[in-house]
Amino acid sequence: MKKVIAIYPGSFDPPTNGHLDLIERGSKIFDELIVAILRNPDKNPLFSLGERRAMLEALTADFKNVRVDVFDGLTVDYAARVKAGAVLRGIRALSDYEYELQMAMMNRKLQPDLETVFMMPAEQYSYLSSRLVREVAKLGGSIQDLVPEMVERRLREKLDPAIKLQDARKMKPGKRA
Fold first, then answer.
1. How far apart (Å, rounded) are the C-alpha atoms in residues 84 and 125?
2. Among this protein's residues, is 3 annotated catalytic?
3. Which of 41, 48, 99, 158 has the fewest Cβ atoms surrounding its Cβ within 10 A?
4. In this predicted model, what pLDDT tens digit does every residue of 46-99 receive, in sequence order?
């Protein structure tokens, strides 16, 4: 029986509970699932590639058939390099479907053997996106239950100067700014 490798491409800036929901469910469907972080020069990410990779590796450590990687260029070319037969994509709303359908059809045109598998997120994550999480966090709103605790902490550290100062003081006891 053929081993089915799938990739789950995205920017993951930051990883959300919606992403983890799809990773967990995808890991049950595919023999191997590669969470593939896209290096996109057109985007100005909040977290570096290294930071996103480290978070995703920590968050997926318990999944034995999931690994995290970084890629650039066309998804179909990356899929061919890792011998993936499927692309996993999440669809939250009708607007996602229209965009994802265009991408899936283009991918099929470029690589006819690469299948796209659409998965709807759990209901509680149906509205969730990394962009919304970043916006709410930047404005000081609660992101509890939207992202894992570790990601929430990393967002607060990155966005809140008071937390950065407090952490710096913890690192250098006895010194005051």
1. 27
2. no
3. 41
4. 999 999 999 999 999 999 999 999 999 999 999 999 999 999 999 988 778 889
